[in-house]
Amino acid sequence: MNQNVISLSIENLELERIQILRKLERLQETLQSEVDPDAEDSVLELEAHERAAALIQTLNERLRSIDEALQQAQQGRYGFCERCGQPIDPARLEIMPETTFCIECKRIVERQKGLKVRTAW
């Protein structure tokens, strides 16, 4: 495994984590503002609140992925698939540094998730 790629990926994860936390802080401030139902632009304010809430959810999911990858880095397991234990392709880590699965295992996991969702019906 190329140690330069791993170091750069971990550094990128740490920077992205900081950026996400800042965005979440700003979005939380948006949600804390009151929507005046009598104001002319109340519909726009409500839509802004809904967009902020959706973005917060997305950013929190991304933050969880980043935290999981950083935890693996602290344990010396970063860059290795959590399912099969094989090294993750460095090109994949460059594109998606928060990944904890190799591409093949990610496909398998996603397929299994799809089956679980379908059997729930």
CATH superfamily: DksA, coiled-coil domain
Uncertain segments: none
CATH fold category name: Four Helix Bundle (Hemerythrin (Met), subunit A)
Fraction of residues in H or I helices: over 70%
- Supply the number of helical segments: 4
Shape descriptor reads elongated
Order of helices and strands: HHHH
Q: Count of DSSP E strands?
A: 0
Describe the sheet with the most strands. none
Q: Approximately how much beta-strand content do the residues carry? A: under 5%
Radius of gyration, rounded? 19 Å
Number of domains: 1
CATH class equals Mainly Alpha
CATH architecture: Up-down Bundle
What average pLDDT do the residues reach? 87
Summarize the model shown.
The protein has 4 helices and no strands. It is an all-alpha fold.
List keywords for this structure.
Four Helix Bundle (Hemerythrin (Met), subunit A); elongated; single chain; 4 helices; 121 residues; mainly alpha
Task: Describe the overall structure.
- There is one protein chain.
- The protein has a single domain (about 5-120), classed as DksA, coiled-coil domain (Four Helix Bundle (Hemerythrin (Met), subunit A), Up-down Bundle).
- The chain is elongated and about 60 Å long.
- The chain has helices spanning about 5-30, 40-75, 90-95, 105-120.
- The protein is mainly α and about 120 residues long.
- α1 packs antiparallel against α2.
- The mean pLDDT is about 85.
- The N and C termini lie far apart (about 40 Å).
- Helix content is about 70%, strand content about 0%.
